[in-house]
Write a structure and sequence with these properties.
Blueprint lengths: L6 E7 L2 E6 L2 E5 L2 E3 L5 H5 L11 E4 L3 E6 L16 E3 L4 E4 L9 E5 L15 H8 L7 E4 H4 L7 E4 L5 E4 L6 E5 L5 H18 L22
Length: 222
């Protein structure tokens, strides 16, 4: 399986896959593609594969770190403050993670399938002013500027279901994509499913609703 090398080409040799990368070729009898919004690009390298998924990118309109003053920082660490989400008004966030994030992350996002509740909160600043007054005087920086790992890009699927399982028309090829903003909660399970598929060619879980084959006829490209 290829997990970390960016593929430059994919070929089939007998029962094996050969993936060309900048670090050299990698050969395996099983290929697992978990490339997020780049999944269709990777599948486009697979000989004879016509399947493409209806993926679209989405992201929060705001994503900022609020860095609390030193005297009150202890009130906002992971030991005392939970992850929070008020998706009916578009707000979510997490506490300070020592040595990993400079402050409390607060995002403003409107999921396409969530009905908004009428509210006077229309930004992360208004949320802080209303609900976290202890951060009113905090230093504020954009997440994209301060961190390369805590930014949010969502891979949305047209039918709002995960894509998880065997890619049709390509024996030994499995894929997982379409986690939107919820994939982190399912990561242990998704990893187990993909491991079972790769090692056993099947899984003990019922993943029929997530089958990649549901897009085989349409061949929809992102």
């Amino acid at each position: 399986m290829v997990e970390t090398c960016e593929p430059r080409g994919i070929t089939r040799s007998g029962q094996n896959w050969i993936v060309a990368t900048d670090s050299g070729p990698v050969e395996s009898d099983v290929l697992v593609v978990t490339a997020g919004l780049g999944t269709n690009d990777v599948l486009g390298l697979v000989p004879g594969s016509q399947i493409r998924f209806p993926l679209s990118p989405d992201r929060p309109t705001q994503s900022k770190y609020f860095i609390p003053p030193a005297g009150s920082r202890a009130m906002f660490t992971q030991d005392v403050m939970p992850v929070f989400a008020y998706l009916d008004i578009g707000i979510y966030g997490h506490p300070v993670y020592d040595e990993k994030t400079p402050g409390i992350k607060i995002g403003f996002y409107n999921p396409p399938d969530v009905t908004r509740t009428a509210s006077r909160i229309g930004s992360v600043e208004e949320f802080v002013a209303e609900c976290l007054p202890g951060l009113r005087d905090a230093e504020v920086v954009d997440v994209a500027t301060a961190s390369g790992v805590d930014t949010c890009w969502y891979d949305l699927v047209a039918d709002d279901e995960f894509i998880l399982g065997a890619a049709p028309g390509a024996p030994g090829l499995f894929t997982g994509v379409g986690w939107r903003g919820t994939g982190y909660k399912f990561a242990p399970w998704v990893g187990r499913v993909l491991a079972q598929l790769a090692l056993q060619q099947g899984t003990v879980y019922d993943i029929g609703r997530f089958t990649p084959a549901r897009f085989a006829v349409e061949g929809v490209a992102s």
